[in-house]
Amino acid sequence: MEAETLGFIREMFRRFYTEHMEEVKPPSMMELREFGFLEFGEKMMVRHKGFRKPEELRMFIAQHVPAHVYYSSAYYRDPEAEMELKGWLGADLVFDIDADHIPTTCKEEHDRWMCRECGASGRGMAPDRCPRCGGAVEAETWFCEACLEAAKEETIKLLDILVQDFGLSYGELSVCFSGHRGYHVHVEDEALRELGREERREIVDYVRGQGIEVELHGLLERPNLTAPGWRGRLTRGLYEVLSRYGPEELRALGLRPRVVKALTEGRSSILRRIEDGVPLTTTPGVGRTSWTKLAAEAARVRGALVDTVVTADVHRLIRLPSTLHGKTALKVAEVPVRGLEGFDPLREAVAFKGGSVKVFVERALSFRVGETVYGPYEGRVVELPLQPALLLMCKGVARLVEAGEVRQA
Amino acid sequence: MSATPLSWHAKYPFSKRTFDHLRQIGFKLEDVASPDNPVVERALGRIGEAIQRGVVGERVDAGILDAMSFLTAAAIVSWTGEPLLMRRYALAEAKRAGRILAVEDLKDIVSLASNTFGWQVKLAEGVSPYEVAVHVKDYLRNAVTLRAPKWKLVNRLVDGGYVYVTRGEAARLLEVEVEKLVFRVVSDFSSTPIPRDLRGVIGEVRGRFSESRPYEAVQTVGGVRVEAFPPCMREMYAKLKAGAKLSHVERFSLTAFLIGVGMELEDIFKLFTSVSDFDERLTWYQIRHIAGQVGGGTRYSPPKCETLRMHGLCTQPDELCGRIRHPISYYRVKVRGARGGG
Lengths: 409, 342
Hints:
The structure holds two protein chains of two kinds.
Chain A: H1 3-19, E1 35-38, E2 46-49, H2 54-64, E3 68-72, E4 74-76, E5 88-91, E6 93-98, H3 107-110, E7 112-115, E8 121-123, E9 137-140, H4 145-164, E10 173-177, E11 182-187, H5 197-208, H6 229-244, H7 247-252, H8 257-265, H9 267-275, H10 288-302, H11 308-312, E12 317-319, E13 334-335, H12 345-348, E14 357-364, E15 367-369, E16 372-374, E17 377-384, H13 386-394, E18 398-402, H14 405-408
Antiparallel strand pairs in A: 1-2, 1-3, 3-12, 4-5, 6-11, 7-8, 7-9, 10-11, 10-13, 14-17, 14-18, 15-16
Chain B: H1 6-11, H2 16-24, H3 29-32, H4 38-53, H5 64-80, H6 83-101, H7 106-117, E1 121-123, E2 132-135, H8 136-143, E3 158-159, E4 162-165, H9 167-188, H10 199-212, H11 231-241, H12 248-260, H13 265-275, H14 280-290, H15 305-310, H16 327-341
Antiparallel strand pairs in B: 1-2, 2-4, 3-4
Helix pairs in contact in B: 4-5, 4-6, 4-10, 5-6, 5-9, 5-10, 6-9, 7-9, 13-14
């Protein structure tokens, strides 16, 4: 990134942190947390920082103007010590829902990847490894409304599981828009604080519905739409799959044409049988194997696609709410837990209002900030309000041409 | 508190209620510490059963004497200084408890779980076939060590923060707790001085234990013995300790070797993560993968000498290297030699 562009971004971040200092809300028990910062243009994180008072943290941020601000989900006796000597006391349970990990069809349009080793490339969601040579791939991602909406859907499913199954109250949960492509859910519950990585991985599998064995839930013999836990969830998932999926989608699950026919032609009677809790195994034309395939789909549909690594990592650093995301200049915005449905991240996370900046945009797909849709742009100078201009610069697809009225202000 | 029946102490000698009771009546190990004391005799019976059958017998006829014999046995096992015997004993006591609990009154199961192990637990009513509801944190802490699919959280009925289990399952989960607790009790005695009168008895137990397992006995006195490592492994180990970067082959070889000579996975994990910024999750996964606990379930052995030579990892082979073909054999020969020789 050009020095001038970088300098401008940094200046704007500095201004944000000076003007909105009080909004930076430290986490609970901040004196037991580790903080980490990523400076602009740096690859190495400054970690193992500790702060005793909110003012200390705010001063540090305002002075250093980092691109990213993180804190540990973990509590430590001595957060500034090196890792083995910190004295781990426990960690909040955190979940990361990122559009990166949710397959959405729009990714074909706006995401690309390239293999760093053999140069192979493709469109859509990046594979873990290069399909040609097995090398590491680099992803070029964009964010779009559909992706953000998909991430929100998963978050809503997660919250439901946490409240119903894990018995957590809304007061123990907090949700943030990550400032880029997803949401973070924090659970501050004393009972769950001491869980180790294995235990957390089990929770991840639970919310994702991974490794579920329908036989163990008695689903085929006793479907029940209102049962607690996964039996009810699987039944509801089945109901959804059967009422929504057409023959094409059913075939894609690996069902035989004969079974697909039985399911589509007998749809209403099958749905009624599910409502009445009639054993699925007595359905004419649909055998156990087919039901198991359908149930697997039900688990996929009803599970919440959280990141598997973040939750299991008991030393994880996560973004501090109300700070800026260095790749978007959007705010890590707190979401009212009960108001997630109507939350609009591209409005609520706006950190910079007004302004006018000229930037040269190399390539940008269309995107929305607030109420306005911008782009697409390719290889030209555009004059934009501060937030969209910063967003493109932070994403590395635009450079500063003229700061305009922002500088003088 | 209502009086605790004597049978409780005999059944659950590790329980908080029993510990409190023993403290109340002023039980001291020194008072029974002579070879012909019936408490010591019973204690030796417990240890013998642990060594021979892997489970301590379920008889509960001696009331508080049984509880005393448990503590005494724990002390004797600790004083042998044999970590493997300590584990075996803890497991054998846990199995005993599991058998008793499987047919125990529900209210006693719940009482043991909450008073001794601090579980948040309640009776599950009207949720057939389940009888006990265990808080998810207490469930997970113990269930993660159990492998069958039915123990996976996603395969359980979880509702309102509780996991629903049958009586037998509750007993199995408690068994895991008991094992950990007994191991702690045993470990805690290691700093207590050994009563003179029991030295002979302890020597006998040690002898019986090593007879029962002629080969493995060499592995662990205070973990593995670095000085018995072959030169190649010593070098990789030193490199790792010095914070140098190991190649993939080196990392794999050393890990498989350490697992092979009986180092605890947790300790290997600590070794790797303490000296460098290895990705913890990945490291833990890789260690368990090599140990065969995840993935395909195959436990990997370290490469044989020939392969190590091919990778250029065979450095400064010594005289013993000429006689063996595998790094683990080197270690075994070396450790056995050190024992036998003095």
